[in-house]
Amino acid sequence: MTEQDDQDGPGGPQRPPRVVQRRVRRTPNFLRFIITGAIIGFIVGALIASGGPDAQGYSDRTGVVLIGGIVAAFGALAGAVIGLLLERFLNRR
Predict the structure, then answer these.
(1) Domain range for 65
(2) Where are the stretches annotated Disordered (predicted)?
(3) What is d(CA 82, CA 37) in angstroms, rounded to the nearest whole number?
């Protein structure tokens, strides 16, 4: 056995590793944007409802849940739009 055979290993001569360049497409996680927008929207809606005047026939909790839910829906929509805009911005090339 020669010295060259010992360096090549049992499978024969080793080739250098191939370098493959691929473009990585960066996309935001839309579900996280939507959930974050909904949570922030609910908090803002709850603060608005708790700070406003009381409506007749509704308890404080009902007002917080109703207004918080409505603003949470708009927050989720805003989070989705922000995610879409961010995706467009990141993948411009």
Answers:
(1) 32-93
(2) 1-23
(3) 9
Instruction: Work out the end-to-end distance of the chain between its first and last CA atoms, rounded to an integer number of angstroms.
Output: 54
pLDDT tens-digit readout, 39-77: 999 999 999 888 877 777 778 888 889 999 999 999 999
pTM of the predicted model as reported, rounded to 2 decimal places: 0.68
Q: Is residue 93 part of a domain?
A: yes
Q: Is residue 14 assigned to a domain?
A: no
**Distance (Å, rounded) from C-alpha 68 to C-alpha 92?**
36
CB 36 within 8 A of CB 91: no
Residue with tokens 């409505």: 70
Q: Do 65 and 45 contact (CB within 8 A), yes or no? A: no
The residue assigned the tokens 């609910």 is 42
Residue listed under structure tokens 């009902």: 62
Give exposure, 52-84, as e/b (b: 16+ Cβ within 10 Å): eeeeeeeeeeebbbebbeebbeebbebbbebbe
